[in-house]
Amino acid sequence: MSKALLIMAHGSRSDTANDEFRALVETVAESAHAAGEEYVAVLPCFLELAFPSLIEAIQQLEHQPVTTVQLYPLFFNKGKHVGRDIPAQIEDARARFPDLSIELLDYFGNARGLAPLVLRHIAEQG
Q1: For 40, how many CA atoms within 13 A lie in the half-sphere containing its CB?
Q2: Whose CB has fewer CB within 10 Å in the chain, the N or C terminal residue?
Q3: Model confidence over 91-123: pLDDT tens digits?
Q4: Distance CA 89, CA 74 (A)
């Protein structure tokens, strides 16, 4: 099984913010490779306001040997976007790419260890 990881952010009207997210995803890709994770690709995508969209990111994979796409929402809360909008985009993607297995991973804000990470980041600043 060859898989790709797409990491989704909300998207911003600020190119600086979108570029910062793209750089983070590139760092995650490098870390995944160094850790031996077997992703064919690790790519950014955006829910809205920026490019690529989920569909456009999947289209970037069309010439690569990918059978499974995992989507990781880098969102803090299970609000409207995580609860409704992202699952709707996943369903659209599944309809457009029926040969791909598209998996929606749990959102970032639900990650174990997030509170200690927040405290460590605060401590590093003070």
Answers
A1: 16
A2: C
A3: 999 999 999 999 999 999 999 999 999 999 999
A4: 15
Report the amino acid identity of residue 34: A
Q: Are strands 39-46 and 3-9 parallel, antiparallel or unpaired?
A: parallel
Cα–Cα dist 27/48, whole Å: 22
Q: Are 18 and 11 in contact (CB under 8 A)?
A: yes
Report d(CA 39, CA 49) in Å as an integer.
Answer: 27
Tens of pLDDT, residue by residue over 32-79, are 999 989 899 999 999 999 999 999 999 999 999 999 999 999 999 999
Each residue of 20-45: pLDDT tens digit?
A: 999 999 999 999 999 989 899 999 99
Tokens, residue 101: 């297995």
Q: Is 49 left (phi over 0), alpha (psi -120 to 50) or beta?
A: left
